[in-house]
Amino acid sequence: EACVRGNLVEAVGAMIDAREREKGRLEQDLDAALQKLTGVQFLGDLEMARKWWESNRERIGAEAATRDGSNVVGSPWTWDRAEAASASADGEERETSAFYGIPIVSRRMLFVIDISKSMESPAEAKPGPTTGRRSAYPEPRSDTKIEIAKWQLHRAIEALPDDAVFNVIVYSESYSAWSDGMETASKRNKAKAHRYVDALAPNGVTNIADPLDEAFDLAGISPLAGMKKAREMAVDTIYLLSDGDPNRGRIARLDELLDDVTTRNPPGLITIHCVGIGEAAGSSFLQALAGRNRGRYVGYR
Predict the structure, then answer these.
(1) Rounded Cα–Cα distance for residues 290 and 284 (Å)
(2) pLDDT tens, 222-266?
(3) Could you report the per-residue pLDDT of 79-94, keeping only the tens digit for each?
């Protein structure tokens, strides 16, 4: 992101090398950044990218030098990670899974799930099929919001690749985590996570601040610390589901919580996708939380 904002075309070679090493969300971010810097969509073909770069680096460097703060295609660049995800996920082969229709491209993710008492009520709508693959979880057990959330979580976990790491945090007025740390998506750990999800039962009210504290701690950002280097972080993406705005916890005021997360997560180092269901469908708080943290927001009644 910094290289593109600064129009640092001399970094393209190093970014191509990084693209060969990375998996998950950073792989996708690098594809989008390379396209913005060069004007070419390589679609992961690194051999072609290297050949193209060797043939064009002098020309692009000369063109870039004539533009102050602009990319080589002549327009200022605003980083939009949601747009990048949509642009590079051309087919299911790019997806490992999805959660409420939001593709999961990360290999280091947390699911933060509302299990407040209101999740017992029926949902008016549910997300459609996420991929064409067959699943052991074809439908939710009932039309309640909690069962649909559990169904989506089961499907997401089921489809994670072996090299992914994940965890699940559930919350109402308090919170708990499936595991004390991030776990690999092995068959054994997936089975444990499925049993944990099956046992979830709604209770209490909505406290979003405290489970986000726990999520940041697991990621490598404590409530009182600044951000760590991306290489040191255990999490790069959070999927947050809620059926209401927060009304309990360390911070209950919506504007204060937004500012707190923005301060602790500059500049959106961790992507936070938000799913609003029931009363939270259309939640301006969840939309702002996703928008400030480079994520996508979806809503279902």
Answers:
(1) 10
(2) 654 444 444 457 899 999 999 988 888 889 899 999 999 998 887
(3) 344 444 444 444 434 4
Look up residue 279 and give its DSSP letter: G
Rounded CA separation 190/198 (Å) = 12
pLDDT digits (tens, 9 = 90+) for 6-63: 888 888 889 899 988 888 888 878 888 888 888 787 777 888 888 888 888 787 767 6
pTM, rounded to two decimals: 0.77
**For residue 300, which phi and psi values (nearest 5 degrees)?**
-135, 130
Region of residue 255 (phi > 0: left; psi between -120 and 50: alpha; otherwise: beta):
alpha
Closest CA to 296 of 101, 163, 115: 101
Q: Which of 172, 167, 219 is nearest to 197 (CA)?
A: 167
Q: Are 28 and 88 in contact (CB under 8 A)?
A: yes
Give CA–CA dist 239/271, Å, rounded. 9
Tokens matching residue 114? 């509302």
